[in-house]
Amino acid sequence: MSMNKVYVIGYGLTKFGELYNHGPSSLAAQALTEAIANSQIDKNQIQAAYFGSLVSSSNSQPSIGTACIRNCNLKIPITRIEAGNASGAAAFYQSYLGILSGVYDCTAVVGVEKLSDYVKSGIIERILGSTIDYQWEFEMGATLTSLYAILTKAHMKEFGTTLEQLSSVPVKNHKNGIHNPQAQFRREIPLENFLKAKRIADPIGRFDPATYCDGAAALILASSNYVKENSDILTQVPILGSSQASDSVALHHRDSLTTIASSVKAAKEAFSKAKLSPKDINFAEVHDSYPIGEILAIEDLGFFTKGEGGKATQEGLTELNAQISINPSGGLKSRGDPFGATGIAQIVEIIEQMKGITGKRQVSESNYGLTQNVLGTGVVSYVNIFGKDEVKK
User: Fold this and answer.
1) What are phi and psi of 23, to 5 degrees?
2) What is the pLDDT of residue 331?
């Protein structure tokens, strides 16, 4: 494999929320235009673009990538990547591999979703059925929420995880999200609200899941040779390790309901490539679409011992500038979850933290950051590790 190093040199992010006045292609173009401007490069030097989208590209505009590129006045090859609610992370990984292989020196990656148009129609739930076992789960009436309820109950039974510990996840993330100007929900929510909420799939309450929303995020990636030839680029964040791994689709085929094996494997490979360990990571953006998702993530990624994630969260060890800062952006819960944009938005947060421009949610030590984005209940996981060594203020 090529030893070519890959850098993030530009980033763009729209506001997340119900953006009824924008279509998916215009949101994508907005994020990409911002990323190009931020990189301060000639846009014509971008050689290819990768687009991550699930619902929007499946329904409203299958040629969303083409429309975005046209709106940005670019004429480059495009590839649309669909990996469920991890479509953005999957597009990033393919863009990364395109440079790592030596095929390209500069690529763009864009994630976009326009979900507010489909909330009432049931389209989102039907498409999300493709992220779980269609025959034995979806056709039998299971949903992502009910399956995450099973994972939650399993963790509670095996490790004594409590509702208070689970609710501490969204409480902390909303606390972080109030300082994120791009977040969908910028307000704190008291612990009592989560504990008293109606159970929609016991033990998951109505306020626990991340919400569907609209938004786009974009990145510009470049090779070490490109960066060397354009040394005046202000953002030069090296990708130290990037990996993906998979597991069985159906929960009943898995070895454990309290471990996301794909996250464990992807993290192990990413740490090996980066020559780092979990204790080196200062902060991380992880997939908290449900509270148990974040608890499983911080355990599977090696930040806490298996079974201790709930306790660690309740004790404040994952709060901003604690033992490890988890989801300083507010996570999927506060920032919102436009599937195709989520995995890329996580990376944007890493870059902005490393540049020291995130204001009141700034992590005091940000030498190494990590992102984790999963498809469905962990069918596929993407883990990326970034270093601050070459970031210019």
Assistant:
1) -90, 170
2) 98
Q: Do domains 6-120+212-237 and 140-208+241-387 have the same CATH topology?
A: yes
**Among 370, 374, 375, 373, which Cα is nearest to 388's?**
370
Q: Give the separation between CA 280 and CA 303, rounded to whole angstroms.
A: 10
Share the mean pLDDT of the chain: 93
Question: Which of the following CATH numbers is that of domain 140-208+241-387: 3.30.1360.70, 3.40.47.10, 3.40.1130.10, 3.20.20.105?
Answer: 3.40.47.10
Three-state secondary structure call for residue 190: coil
63 pLDDT exceeds 80? Answer: no
DSSP string, 42-54: -GGG--EEEEE-S
- pTM, entire model: 0.96
| HEC assignment per residue over 340-382 | HHHHHHHHHHHHHHHHCCCHHHCCCCCCEEEEEEEECCCCEEE
Indicate if the pLDDT at residue 332 is higher than 70. yes
Q: Give the pLDDT mean for 259-278.
A: 97
